[in-house]
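Q: How would the structure tokens look for this protein?
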Amino acid sequence: MSQQVIRLIVTSDTHGHWLNQPDNPKASLFNTATCIENLKAKDAAVTLTIDLGDFIQGSSFATYLSQERQDGRVIARAMNVIGYDYQLIGNHEFNFGQDYRDQIIEDLNADLLVSNIIDDATGKPFLGKPYDIIEREGIKIGIVGVTTSYIPNWELPAHYEGLRFEDAFESAKYYVEIVRDQVDVVILAYHGGFERDLVTKEPLEELTKENQGSEMLAGIEGVDVLLTGHQHRELNQQVGQTYVIQPGYAGEIVAEVEIELTDNQEVSGINGTLHNTSQCEVNQAVKAVMEPEITDGNNWLNTVLGVAPLEQVTTSPIDARLNGHPFIELLNQIQFDETGADFSSVALVNDAFVNFHGEITNEILLKSYPFYNLIAKVNVTGNDLYEVMEFNLQYLEVNAQGNIQVNPEYVEPKPRHYNFDVYSGMTTTVDMTQPVGHRVTSIVDDRTGKKLDKNATYSVALSQYRAVGGGDFKWYGKEKIESISNIDIATLMKDALGNYTQEKWDYINSNYQHLKWDPKLDIADMNNL
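A: Here is the predicted structure in token form.
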């Protein structure tokens, strides 16, 4: 019996890494483009190329486009040369507001698949269409697109005004049922991941519906291939009747799925491959179409902004989170200056803080703090802050040797080190030998030297992401926001380089420790992040 083949070529969470991959400065999305080109030319199989979203934000170059140039259409030009057939919307497509996203989307040649983000005015998907049915070589293919519905828990309301987010599982099920009987092959493309282990079915995270891939596998019949993203995992396996793919992060991986069909158009086998794109050459055609933005962007990124006289007290991210660091204190002082809040908190989002001293360029700044977050001032009770700190400390646990280590749930399946906040303006005494939820011994207001009154109201300066409850910090929220700055943190960091006095820098270099560990335990394997 003869075989026909449908080939899916899939990327996700490329995050604008056109200049370099995070862990490989010699590779970039230009290498990814060549890998896709090679797979398209592999043979005469029916081929569909799909990107699952999170493609306009996440790199220094993407930030240059959105904040300095304020024009990201070069991304669409590049993706059109690559030749994507379908495009999904990811949660980070909302980071820079709807106008910026839409200018890029409007220039894309790919068909946009959006089933569960609804325009309140029309009751229909706000962009594109919920699914597509095509026929190639006599094979009918249905593809449904869906996005994590958790976006309002991360974004400012202005970034999704006029939209509502329907349950991703329910939308996927509804449209798969419409498509299933009309086609030979059903593909479900989802900007989201898996909330449960694919083998044991045990939860991998709190079941918030941020990720509903496991629910889709269990509750939607007739899906041949489930394409996933969002978690930056590398997945390639059969789960029950459905083949599952997730192609990593930053274009480091291109997923290939080959669906074999009999001459009666019945699926007879599915195989997947995850291709490492660093082995591919730079795609000169795609690179050429991104000029002059690439050259201009590199020049801007290499521009020197000033000098940061910060002391490097440690190069270990976990040590910096637990015992403080002048870089973290700098961010908190910037938030204090902007809001006048009682307390301030920030997250150390990566390990690039070690480069933030001496001469600072735009690139060093953006790698150290890669988000153009606004600063919010929220009002909470003292009791809220005690509960926030208990929740915050779930990031840590004590191992069998009696040492503090990162809770594995914050490492797998997706690293979430950004969900541990470091507070300034208050000193928290912690006893890690106590059970979860009972570790905070006291919280003292540094201004008064007195413990927080659990019934009193205090103001806290936070990033906009945390202020709306991002990271499941439910004690914050839109209703508790008093004000939001007009200037983002990254811009204020540039201002600090020019305006902070030596006295201010000296204060930052000597007042960065705000956690007391009693008893004091050793940190286990500090570099194991």
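The chain has a mean pLDDT of 96.

The longest helix spans residues 326-339.

Upvote if useful.
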